[in-house]
From TrEMBL:
<feature type="domain" description="LKB1 serine/threonine kinase interacting protein 1 N-terminal">
    <location>
        <begin position="3"/>
        <end position="81"/>
    </location>
</feature>
<dbReference type="Pfam" id="PF13516">
    <property type="entry name" value="LRR_6"/>
</dbReference>
<keyword id="KW-0963">Cytoplasm</keyword>
<keyword id="KW-0808">Transferase</keyword>
<dbReference type="Pfam" id="PF15904">
    <property type="entry name" value="LIP1"/>
</dbReference>
<dbReference type="GO" id="GO:0016301">
    <property type="term" value="F:kinase activity"/>
</dbReference>
<dbReference type="InterPro" id="IPR031782">
    <property type="entry name" value="LIP1_N"/>
</dbReference>
<dbReference type="InterPro" id="IPR001611">
    <property type="entry name" value="Leu-rich_rpt"/>
</dbReference>
<keyword id="KW-0677">Repeat</keyword>
<feature type="region of interest" description="Disordered">
    <location>
        <begin position="379"/>
        <end position="430"/>
    </location>
</feature>
<feature type="compositionally biased region" description="Basic residues">
    <location>
        <begin position="400"/>
        <end position="411"/>
    </location>
</feature>
<keyword id="KW-0433">Leucine-rich repeat</keyword>
<protein>
    <submittedName>
        <fullName>Serine/threonine-protein kinase 11-interacting protein-like 7</fullName>
    </submittedName>
</protein>
<dbReference type="InterPro" id="IPR032675">
    <property type="entry name" value="LRR_dom_sf"/>
</dbReference>
<dbReference type="GO" id="GO:0005737">
    <property type="term" value="C:cytoplasm"/>
</dbReference>
<keyword id="KW-0418">Kinase</keyword>
Length: 430
C-alpha cells in the first residue's frame, strides 16, 4: 500500500483511529517502512524527538500525506504490534515507538521487549500492556524499558499487565513500580518462584495459572486487602498456606493442583466473601463426598449470598451445611500438618484444565505459537476493537468488584480505496 492510499484509508477511518476502544494493528515490517518514509519530513537522527524540516524540503507530492499519517499516529490510543512468520527481527535491530505519543494500550506479539526504543516516553500514558512471547525478565520491561536502558521510575497510569506465555521462571522487585496495577496475568510463564509478588503494592485480579508453583506466594499487606480474584489452577499446590490473609477474595480457582486432604483447604474458612470456588481436578475430589466436606469448611458468612462451587450453585440443603466445620479466621496450618501435606502430595503432571467461569486465557499455548491476525494479516495496517478481558467496577462498600464481560473483538481492515496504480510520485510502503 502506498503512502497516498494509506493516508486516504486513515482519513476514512479517522473516527476509529481516535476511539479508545480500537487498536491499530501493524506488523514490524510495515512500521519500519512507514518510519523510513517519515525521514522525508523529520530529522530523526539529529534530534531526540521528531522535528519538522523547513518548507524547502517539502517538494515531494507525498509529503502532505506523510504529515497526515504522522499526525494520526501521534494521537492513537491503542497499538497491536506483531511479527509475521519468517520476519523475525535480526539480532540487535530495534523498533522505535517514537511516533506514538499518546498510547494508552500497547500489545506486542512475538516481539522481544529488548528490541523496543522510546518505550520509556510512554510510561506516563500507558494503562494497559500485553506481551506474548517476548519477555524473559520483568525488569527489562518495567525498569530498563527495552532498549532504552532507563532507570527505576513508577508507571503511574498502568492498570493492566497481561504477560502470559513468556519464559519468566521467576519475578523481581520491578513490580514495586506499579502502584496502581489492578490486573496482572502471569499465566503460562513457567514460574517456579513467585515470591517477588510481595513487592506488588496492590492488585485486584491475579492470574498465576499454568505454572510450576508449589507455594502460594505471599502478597504485601495492601495487595492482600485489594485482591478480589485469584486464579491459580494447573500448578503444584499441595496446600494453600497464606490464603487466610487474602480475606477479601470473591473468586478462587484452584483446579488441577495436588490438593489431596480436606485439611489442605481449611484456609477457605477465612474467606467470608467467596462467591466462586473451583477445586475440580485435585485428588481430593476423588472422594464422592468431597463437595459436602468442603462446603462445611466455608466461612459461615458465605451462606448470606449466592455461591457457585465447581460450576454448580449451592442448593438449599448445602446452604444449611455451610460453616459447620469452618476453621476460625486467621488460623494457619501446624508445622506437622504442613509436613504431612507436602510428603503425601508428590508432584504430578497437571490434568487438562476444565473451562470455567474464572479462567479465560488471552491466548492458548497453541494460539500463542501460531498467532497471526487472521484475515487482516495481508494488510499493512488495520484496526481492532479489543475490549478488556476482565473489568472491575466499584461495589457498594467501595471495593472493586469483578464484572464478567464477554470478550468481543472486531477487526476493521484499512485497505486501499483504489485499485489503480499509484502515480510516480507516490512512496510505496509495501
Amino acid at each position: 500500500m502506498g503512502v497516498c492510499s494509506l493516508a486516504t484509508a486513515f482519513r476514512q477511518s479517522a473516527h476509529l483511529l481516535l476511539d479508545q476502544q480500537y487498536k491499530l494493528l501493524l506488523d514490524t515490517w510495515s512500521l519500519g517502512e512507514i518510519q523510513e518514509a517519515f525521514s522525508l519530513i523529520l530529522e530523526i537522527e539529529q534530534h531526540t524527538n521528531f522535528h519538522v524540516l523547513p518548507p524547502n524540503h517539502r517538494q515531494h507530492s507525498a509529503i502532505p500525506h506523510l504529515q497526515f499519517i504522522y499526525d494520526r499516529l501521534q494521537k492513537i490510543f491503542g497499538l497491536r504490534l506483531w511479527a509475521k512468520v519468517g520476519q523475525s527481527l535480526p539480532q540487535n535491530e530495534t523498533i522505535s515507538l517514537r511516533c506514538f505519543r499518546n498510547l494508552q494500550a500497547l500489545e506486542l506479539l512475538h516481539i522481544p521487549v529488548t528490541s523496543l526504543k522510546a518505550l520509556q516516553t510512554l510510561r506516563p500514558t500507558l494503562r494497559s500492556v500485553i506481551i506474548v512471547k517476548g519477555l524473559t525478565r520483568l525488569s527489562d520491561l518495567f525498569i530498563r524499558c527495552g532498549a532504552d536502558k532507563a532507570g527505576e521510575f513508577a508507571w503511574e497510569q498502568l492498570q493492566e499487565a497481561v504477560l502470559a506465555h513468556n519464559s519468566l521462571y521467576s519475578l523481581d522487585h520491578s513490580l514495586s513500580l506499579l502502584p496502581n496495577l489492578k490486573i496482572l496475568d502471569l499465566s503460562h510463564c513457567e514460574l517456579e518462584d513467585a515470591s517477588a509478588l510481595e513487592y506488588l503494592p496492590t492488585v485486584s485480579l491475579l492470574d498465576l495459572s499454568h505454572n510450576q508453583l508449589r507455594l502460594l506466594p505471599r502478597l504485601s499487606p495492601t495487595a492482600t486487602y485489594s485482591l478480589i480474584v485469584l486464579i491459580a489452577n494447573n500448578n503444584l499446590f499441595s496446600h494453600i498456606s497464606g490464603l487466610h490473609e487474602m480475606n477479601n477474595i470473591e473468586e478462587l480457582d484452584l483446579r488441577d493442583n495436588v490438593l489431596s486432604l480436606k485439611e489442605a483447604l481449611s484456609p477457605i474458612g477465612a474467606l467470608p466473601h467467596i462467591r466462586v470456588l473451583k477445586i475440580s481436578g485435585n485428588p481430593i475430589t476423588w472422594d464422592l463426598n468431597y463437595r459436602s466436606q468442603i462446603i462445611r469448611q466455608l466461612n459461615p458468612a458465605t451462606a448470606n449470598h449466592k455461591v457457585v462451587f465447581d460450576d454448580v450453585p449451592l442448593t438449599g440443603q448445602e446452604y444449611d451445611e455451610v460453616g459447620m466445620h469452618a476453621v476460625p479466621a486467621g488460623s494457619s496450618y501446624s508445622p506437622e500438618l504442613l509436613s504431612s501435606l507436602s510428603s503425601l502430595c508428590s508432584p504430578v503432571n497437571p490434568i487438562s484444565p476444565a473451562h470455567g467461569l474464572i479462567s479465560q486465557p488471552l491466548y492458548s499455548p497453541e494460539e500463542a505459537d501460531l498467532i497471526q491476525l487472521d484475515p487482516v494479516d495481508s494488510q499493512p495496517a488495520s484496526l481492532v476493537n479489543d475490549s478488556a478481558p476482565v473489568s472491575l467496577k466499584n461495589s457498594g462498600n467501595g471495593q472493586p468488584r469483578r464484572k464478567s464481560k464477554k470478550k468481543r473483538t472486531r477487526h476493521i481492515a484499512i485497505t486501499d480505496p483504489d485499485n489503480e496504480d499509484m502515480d510516480n510520485d507516490s512512496i510505496h510502503l509495501a
